[in-house]
Amino acid sequence: MTSPRSRTDSSAVDEAWGRLPRLRGAEPDLGSFTRHRIERVLQIAIALGSVFLGLQGLISALGTLATGTVAQNALVVVTFGSLAAMLVACVVGRAVRVTAGVFIGVFAVVLVVFPVVNVGLYTSPTEQPWIWFLINVATVASVLVLPLPAQIAWTILAPLMFGVIRLIGGAFDPSFWLSLALDVSFALILGGVLITLGWLLRSIATNVDETRARAVDLYARAAAADAAEDERVAVAALMHDSVLAALIAAERADTPREQALAVSMAREALTRLANTDRDASEGSDAGRTSDSIADEIEAGAREMGADLTVRRRVASDAADVPGRVARSLVLAATQAVSNSLQHAAGAGLEVSLEADGDPVVVVVEVRDDGAGFDVGAVPDDRLGIRASIIARMAAVSGVGVVSSGADGTRVRLEWAGVASA
């Protein structure tokens, strides 16, 4: 059930953090808020810049559609069609990586086949083909889909490929070299600036997310440690004010009335100590059947996600159990089930209830097949066993016994009533 931990100074905060209750299946997701927003900003910015460059290329390409061949027109349609799909995806924020990857692939193929399809065209060094206007659109598109090393490689490769196809189209005429050197240099510089901005923004966003996640984690750990310390102070005050007072009263009790009062004070102190971990009063003392106790244990287990059936053996002449006793049995058994689910994953978890006749004796046992632990090594300030099980049963004149070993853990809760007259 409640397994011992090594208690070093460096692990004190970790242990306090581990005590925070968590919903099943819920994990914090704090590490990508700023990165997501930066990604969205990049998508919109790239879309806007690509629209202006793409329009220039489209205007240039439209002038060749009327006189172009089927192959030449097909290159225009495929290139600008894939570009339009990427722009729409960037605006709506859907399928951005896919459409950007398709556009880069299409553009790379168009660069390779461009000099073959456009033989005899663009022979003047001052006449730029429409594909020139899309060079940096293709390089900045890599920011949306490729890792940084691939972005750098593509930003260098695309302008160089453009320079080669222009030289091929101009038959390597020396008049092309100077203008191409300027064009390729401009494309390389602009592409380098664009991918650098993308890398810089993403790095800042990642650092912000990581810093914020660490801050939230440290705050949660500090809050958990503070809550644990408050609990220790509250328990210490309770022990001092209630338990110590009960012991002093018991020591000084001489008359039967004083002894009865001391017993009442001790029971109240134990009940308060047992209920430190939850807002649970003694409740009504009206009689409760043993079957109702088993039903409440099953309901408590279901609330913790365990589909548990309590095995019952209730004698036909078993008397009702006082309400405060029934409540203590239910809470102690539920705590034992909770410990088993938390520390043994509920392996082999079984709960049984036996109730005999007059005088009524109720025995509840909770077993599991977990790895077990050393009961004596559990720290004094861990209330899962001492307060929620042992002290809770002692408060109603019952007995709670916890035994554990390599074959599992067993919690036995027993309460015996007084024979009726």
Uncertain segments of ≥5 residues (pLDDT<50)? Answer: 1-31
First CA to last CA: what distance? 40 Å
| Morphology call | rod-shaped
How many domains, in number, for the residues?
2
Q: Compute the gyration radius: what is it?
A: 38 Å
Mean pLDDT: 79
Please bin the fraction of helical residues. Answer: 55-70%
Which sequence of SSEs, written as H and E, runs from N to C? HHHHHHHHHEHEEHEE
Which strands sit side by side, in order, in the main sheet? 1-2-3-5-4
Number of strands: 5
Structural class: alpha+beta
Estimated share of beta-strand residues: 5-15%
Largest sheet: 5 strands, mixed
Tally of individual helices: 11
Describe the protein.
It contains eleven helices and five strands. The protein has 421 residues and is of the alpha+beta class. It has two domains: 33-212, no CATH class; 280-416, Histidine kinase-like ATPase, C-terminal domain (Heat Shock Protein 90). The radius of gyration is 38 Å and the shape is rod-shaped. It starts with 11 loop residues before the first helix and ends in a 5-residue tail after the last strand. Mean pLDDT is 79; it is low at 1-31. Strand 2 (350-355) and strand 3 form a beta hairpin. It has helices at 12-18, 33-65, 70-92, 96-117, 135-145, 148-169, 175-252, 256-274, 290-303, 323-343, 383-394, and strands at residues 311-314, 350-355, 361-368, 399-405, 408-416. The longest helix has 78 residues, at 175-252. It has a five-stranded mixed β-sheet.
